[in-house]
């Protein structure tokens, strides 16, 4: 089975000081050892960089670009990126209209669009509630603690 890995999981996976790092690492190792494929989108890279380099007092990690780049290299080695395609945009556009998506939630809709275009049903995320609206699309949100 293929899982899309949400950015919040990637962030906790690379931050060894985070309270959820161990849960995240355990879930990823288990999924991989069970033969599942863990993928990400180019959007995950962008979101990761945003949070990793944003100042800590603005809800970021406050990493320098050099440190963020080292973490990004780890992510790139472990999680293959899905191809971007015009079909993802078309699917995203349909989703935001069909589900009346607005504001910051448009980013989750784009992840769902990439999932559906690439025949992926599961997303590994700490924010399951962000994806419940897409259940009718076949999207299943899995919390790392439940793996």
Automatic annotation (TrEMBL):
Stretch forming the signal peptide: none
Residue ranges occupied by any PIN domain in the UniProt entry: 3-135
Pfam families: PIN
Top-rank taxon, per record: Bacteria
Record's protein name: PIN domain-containing protein
Organism of origin: Oscillatoriales cyanobacterium SpSt-418
């Amino acid at each position: 089975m293929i899982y899309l890995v949400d950015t919040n999981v990637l962030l906790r996976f690379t931050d060894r000081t985070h309270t959820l790092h161990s849960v995240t690492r355990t879930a990823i190792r288990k999924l991989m050892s069970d033969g599942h494929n863990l993928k990400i989108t180019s959007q995950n890279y962008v979101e990761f960089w945003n949070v990793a380099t944003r100042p800590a007092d603005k809800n970021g990690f406050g990493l320098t670009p050099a440190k963020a780049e080292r973490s990004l290299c780890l992510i790139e080695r472990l999680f293959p990126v899905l191809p971007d395609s015009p079909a993802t945009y078309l699917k995203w556009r349909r989703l935001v209209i069909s589900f009346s998506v607005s504001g910051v939630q448009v980013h989750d809709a784009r992840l769902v669009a990439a999932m559906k275009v690439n025949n992926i049903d599961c997303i590994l995320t700490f924010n399951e509630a962000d994806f419940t609206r897409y259940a009718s699309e076949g999207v299943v949100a899995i919390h790392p603690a439940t793996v």
